Amino acid sequence: MLRYTIKPKNLGAHLLSVSIDVDDNADVLTAKIPKWIPGSYKIRDYSRHIQNFHAKRAADGKPLAWRKLDSDTWEIDSDGQAVNLSYDVYAYDLSVRGAYLDDTRMFFNHCCVATDIIALSQCRRRIAIESPQDWRLFTALPRCQGEKNIFEADSYEHQIDCPVESAEHYVHRQFSIADVCHEVVFTGYLSDDDDVDGMTQRIKNICTAEIKLFGGSPLDSYLFMTYLEHKQYGGLEHKNSVAQMASPDMMMKKGVAMTDKMIDFMGLCSHEYFHLWNIKRLQPKDFQPYNLYREQHTEMLWMFEGFTSYYDELFLLRAGVVDANTFLQRQAKNLTRVLNVPGRKLQPLAASSFDAWTKLYQADANSSNNMVSYYTKGAVFALYLDLFIRRHSDNHHSLDDVMRELWQRYGAKGIGIDEDSVFTACAGYIAADKREQLAQRFVEGLHGTNDLDFDKLLTAFGVSVTQTVSQTKGKTHTTDSGLRLNIERGVATIAFLHADSHAAAVGVSVGDRLIAIDRQQMDNIDFQQRLNIGRAGETLMLTLSRRGRVFDKTIRLAPAVANQYHFVLSEQSTALGERWLETWQP
Ligand SMILES: [Zn+2]
Q1: ipTM over 0.95
Q2: Which of 435-440's residues contact partners 24+ apart within 8 Å by CB, and which partners?
Q3: Cα-to-centroid distance, 98 and ligand 1 (Å)
Q4: How close is the Cα of 41 to the center of ligand 1, in Å?
Q5: How far is the centre of ligand 1, averaged over its atoms, from the C-alpha of 268 (Å)?
Q6: Which of 191, 273, 472, 569 is 20–30 Å from 518 (CA)?
């Protein structure tokens, strides 16, 4: 039996104390802490926050010899007897993949704080979690009967899939869908104006629609945990819960119409809930089992993140959070995002997934030039497949059938999938003479860098595609400088530079501070407007500074291109389009 005790040690110093009791075991005991957390594909080396490690014999407290084998591994001479390990964890990482402790809140993933005891990974364990008096504690870990703060987990994998949130101030709601209890918890920057009930109702509608797609729920319970903090956004999916962060202005407010940000937050809830099937249970073969001690690559994240990103929007529509036109606008916005990334011409979708560890998760100023996101392009591919299947099955089938089949055939049985599993499932729902074409789309869409052609497909559904030129403050751009500025506190810095632009060719660099254009400082002109609204072929002299050195560069403006996409339901609906819309009804 394993017993973990995790509790705050010093709120101001952000220290958690961890104690692990291990009953009789082998002569040598090995404790190990993961390098990364499932769902977030980056080596994080959680061992760096562990300090003050001790090992002692449980019976009499006699210190035991131990040594580090590598950054993540402790080897203890336990001599086959019961052992107690203890250490502290520095917990001051706000992200949903980390651990955090201060005088208002405790949050942690067990990945960051609890070492695995290698020979006992599959053993049941009891986990005592303490937090300051009056703080309420939330986690999807099952409580031991009759205990308030003692939980149990079937295995290490189960333990690390159940993050913990605890705070004094919170709001809590719950609802049931087919006897499955769902809890919705918000902590952090709460306001009396927050329309928590309105949000809970919408979340319930989204969950109901998702359960309907999969033909049932594999859950006993589910917990939405959202910490509200300014300028934060994101989530990390788990089997029976999700840890999310959102900015307070993403909360619906009583008597206030939904803003784009509020819709985005509903989309986040929709996304993370969809993951309880798509990645937490239906998984790539490559992740079975997880190896948390080194990078683990898969080419399949276009399916697990991309399809999830497509469906998170589709369920906003099906749950009545947005209408059909808003759904189409948001799809077009996503396509715009993809088609404005030069890196899509260098990196295929499958490669974007494979290299997530060093590209998407380590994005820098050059990322748009050398990569494409498997979230955005994966969602575009999902939309394409959905339309393709509908078109070539006379709208009798859709990507819904594919997801349901993959779930029933693989996910529900714990069997991993690969690209061929997805292709075969899609091919089963279209006319036989279109399968060759579908195979080509898979090759092009996943392993090629050409853009998928949406125009014809969407037209068949009565949706017209138009392109317009970007605007700033209502003014249409006439020129493209290849530069994007970041303006903060009156200082303009070059945040992005198109690698093929004239500006790059003459030596302008990301990070350069823009001081003047044609000798005029920013106080006198609007830099962004001067770059975007000029004359094609016109030259501008930029005065820049780089590490204290001031210099001039003359750049030539290219003509602006119509790079903003719009999907609009046309007046003349098609039979296919009408049936498509019917399947969207809540
Ligand atoms: Zn996701």
Answers
A1: yes
A2: 438/388, 438/392
A3: 17
A4: 11
A5: 9
A6: 472
